[in-house]
Every structure is written in structure tokens, then in C-alpha cells.
Specification:
431 residues, alpha/beta, Purple Acid Phosphatase, chain A, domain 2, 2 domains, six-stranded mixed beta sheet, 45% helix
């Protein structure tokens, strides 16, 4: 089934849920004033229809990643809430249906007479209900229980802010490379990505994550872009913390789409924008990070070498293509292994797989795992997978690999649900 067909069917089903839940809620809150009912009606349909339209816009239009995240997370959370409510509503409706069928099977004639009488005499209807022992109208208890249960997915957002934003996770990956020189066998590499220092509000927690990284004692470190949200000045309060990230073989970094100031100054050039980028480059030097801007480095151990290639941001769609692989790959022909730092994972399928088959592994970030989803040992899911084919973890196509880190920080929504901040530790080994 194509993506468009799937989404259309999904949204149709969601609309049916919306109608069903809407009338269920109204049935419980019969005592609402007409003005309250009118307000609820407008709010319900404006929110739900807007989210359905927003889903298609998020997938097919070049919206900002933050806007996409807000729309998709809100849509899936509300849909999840309705799905949780559904069993309660179905149980109540099935119960009422069973009562009606039982009464009709007992005596059809009597039921017809009862219906005719109770239409003009509510007192008799109430009396019949008492005799039957079950009310015909929807059970307030079941529906309210459904509403409470449906609130659980929404409450997870609050928990994601309180608990998930700084709950750093160490993920360990054995990276097999057939052409890896013997001297590099067993060497460890750490990757962090998408720090977004402008979003932080807890320096102690941020430092705690850095301490976790340093405790792993990696031989070298990769940072794959988005050090800030918009401006280099956002790094000011955290520069001393990230300056502590060091490794015997060096720390290597590239820029992400947020590091250029495009979202603050616009895509055009200006003196302020140029200065912002210069400050970004200077900040890397101050921290001791080797910033690769369409260039490469030779990493040497015991006389043997591998290549580290780093390019500026290159993304599909509306994201800028500052990266120049032809420049970054110069004079790397003799290197047996080449590791690529490229912020946006879409670059791997958009250019690397087709044109640069000698890239052994690409390291990316950018997606954040949408900061919402499920990530278990053998299973993972997030709304972002409907936008990015490669969005979290290790991917392989023939002899080439890609690892997508879901990020150290957060953007927009100040938390994480399921997709917790990540520090990845790779152990290089010969296949």
C-alpha cells in the first residue's frame, strides 16, 4: 500500500473515531449548557480536522522540522488517546445492544407497545429501565473511565519533559568493517549529535551527560551537527561543559542545518550572518573540536591509516546543500576505510550510495527520532519514519552502512518520550 493511500485510510478511520467519541462524550455530559456544548463542538472539530490537514502538510510540504514534530506528535498522541478510549465505548455499546436484543427476543409485541407508550411518557421509560436493571443510555461510568484512560498518552508529554529530556542513554554498536586495518581493530568511537544548546535549561543535567560520555573513554569522538538552534551565542553558557569532551585521537565535528543561522537571519547573506558563522567556527577551535567543512583527516594508529570525511550540511527537500563531497574526498583514494560525518541522513541515500561507494560508514543525526516513539532492542517506531527512511540506528545497503543518532538535546518540545537522548559507543572490528 502506498504512503498516500495508507494515510488517507488512516485519516478516514480517525474521523470515524472522532465522530464516535464526540457523541459518546456528549452523551455523558448531558447537563452541559448549550453554550458549553457549542464551544466543545467547535473546539473538537477545529482541533481534529486541523491535525488531519496538518499531517498531510507535514509529510508533503517543506515545513520546518519543529512544526512537523509538533503536528505529528500531537496527531499520534490524540489518536492513541482515542484508541485507548475505544474499548470502553465498545463495551458499553455492546452491553446496550445485548439488553435490547434480549428484551426484543423476550417479547416483540410488548416491546413495540412499550416503545409507543414511552415515547409519550418518559416516566414509564424510567420505570422499564429499573425493571430491566440496566439503563439503555450510555453508561457514564464506562465513558468517563475511557476518558481517564485516554488521558494517559497525553500525560506522557508532561512526563517526557520531567523525565525524558536529560535521560541520556548509552547505546553500544559493534561496527564491522571488512577493510579495517589491524591497528584499528577494537578501537572505540563515540558519537553525539544535535546538542541544540539553545534549548537547555539544566546545566547540571547536561554536564552529567558529558560525564557519562567521558566515562566510556572513547579513542575518538564524532559530533554530527546542530550545536545550536539558531545563534552561536546560545553556546555561551555550555561551551565550558562541551570543552571537556576530549579523546586521544581527537574530536571531529561538522555543521548541521541549524548552525548557519539560516532560521534567524534568512537564507541570504548579511554581515551579521557571516559573523555568526565565524563565531561558530571559532567556538569549535576554543573547545578543541576539529571542524570539518568539506574536508578530510587521516587518522593514524601504529603506522596505519583510515580516513575521516566531514561535509557541511546536505539535505533533501528544503534543507540546504552546502556539502561538497568532491572537495571532502580529495586525496583519499589510498585509504582502506572512510568514515563520513554528514548531519542529515537523507544525504546517504540522496548522494553517497550512488556516487561514493568507497564510503564505508556514514554518521548522521538530524531526525531526533521526532523526540517521540518506541525504541526497544529489536523494535522501534516513531512518526518521523514517515518522513525519513533512515531515522534511528544502524542501516546497511550492500557494503555501505549508516548510523543515525537520535540526538543529545531537543528542539521545540522540551522533552522526549520514548526516544531518549543518545550517546553512541562504537567498537570498530574487522568483519
Amino acid at each position: 500500500m502506498g504512503r498516500t493511500i495508507f494515510l488517507t485510510v488512516l485519516c478516514f478511520v480517525v474521523i470515524l473515531f472522532d465522530i464516535y467519541c464526540y457523541y459518546a462524550i456528549l452523551a455523558v455530559f448531558k447537563k452541559w449548557k448549550p453554550s458549553t456544548k457549542q464551544f466543545f463542538k467547535k473546539a473538537w472539530w477545529v482541533v481534529n480536522i486541523s491535525l488531519i490537514v496538518g499531517v498531510f502538510c507535514a509529510i508533503y510540504l517543506n515545513l520546518f522540522l519543529t512544526a512537523r514534530a509538533i503536528i505529528l506528535v500531537a496527531f499520534f498522541l490524540l489518536t492513541a488517546s482515542k484508541m485507548v478510549m475505544l474499548p470502553f465505548l465498545l463495551v458499553d455499546d455492546l452491553r446496550r445492544l445485548a439488553i435490547k436484543i434480549f428484551k426484543k427476543s423476550k417479547t416483540k409485541d410488548q416491546s413495540r407497545m412499550s416503545d409507543d407508550i414511552t415515547t409519550n411518557n418518559p416516566t414509564i421509560e424510567q420505570s422499564n429501565n429499573k425493571i430491566a436493571g440496566e439503563p439503555i443510555s450510555r453508561s457514564s461510568f464506562l465513558v468517563k473511565a475511557g476518558l481517564i484512560a485516554g488521558a494517559i498518552p497525553l500525560s506522557s508529554l508532561s512526563w517526557g519533559i520531567i523525565s525524558g529530556a536529560y535521560d541520556y542513554q548509552i547505546r553500544r554498536v559493534n561496527l564491522k568493517l571488512p577493510n579495517l586495518p589491524k591497528a584499528f581493530n577494537g578501537i572505540t568511537l563515540a558519537q553525539v549529535s544535535d546538542i541544540h544548546s539553545g534549548s537547555f535549561y539544566n546545566k547540571t543535567a547536561v554536564k552529567g551527560g558529558v560525564d557519562m560520555l567521558l566515562a566510556e573513554k572513547p579513542d575518538f569522538v564524532f559530533f554530527t551537527g546542530d550545536l545550536v538552534n539558531n545563534l552561536t551565542s546560545e553556546l555561551k553558557d555550555y561551551q565550558d561543559i562541551f570543552s571537556k569532551v576530549t579523546a586521544p585521537l581527537g574530536v571531529y565535528s561538522v555543521l548541521g542545518n541549524h548552525d548557519y543561522g539560516d532560521y534567524h537571519f534568512g537564507k541570504g547573506t548579511s554581515p551579521a550572518k557571516v559573523k555568526n558563522l565565524k563565531d561558530m567556527v571559532a567556538s569549535h577551535k576554543i573547545m578543541g573540536w576539529d571542524l570539518l567543512m568539506n574536508e578530510n583527516r587521516r587518522l593514524k594508529v601504529d603506522g596505519e591509516e583510515i580516513g575521516i570525511v566531514g561535509i557541511e550540511n546536505w539535505g533533501m527537500g528544503r534543507f540546504p546543500k552546502y556539502g561538497k563531497m568532491e572537495l571532502a574526498m580529495q586525496n583519499t583514494e589510498d585509504l582502506p576505510v572512510k568514515l563520513l560525518l554528514s548531519h542529515d541522513p537523507s544525504h546517504w541515500r540522496g548522494e553517497v550510495l550512488e556516487k561514493y561507494k568507497d564510503i564505508d560508514v556514514a554518521f548522521a543525526g538530524h531526525t531526533h527520532g521526532m523526540q517521540f516513539g518506541v525504541r526497544l532492542k529489536d523494535t522501534q517506531w516513531s512518526p518521523v519514519q514517515y518522513i525519513y527512511k533512515e531515522w534511528a540506528g544502524l542501516y546497511q545497503e550492500q557494503q555501505q552502512q549508516l548510523y543515525v543518532n537520535v540526538g543529545y538535546g531537543f528542539l521545540g518540545y522540551p522533552g522526549r518520550v520514548g526516544m531518549l537522548p543518545e550517546i553512541t559507543i562504537f567498537t570498530l572490528s574487522r568483519a
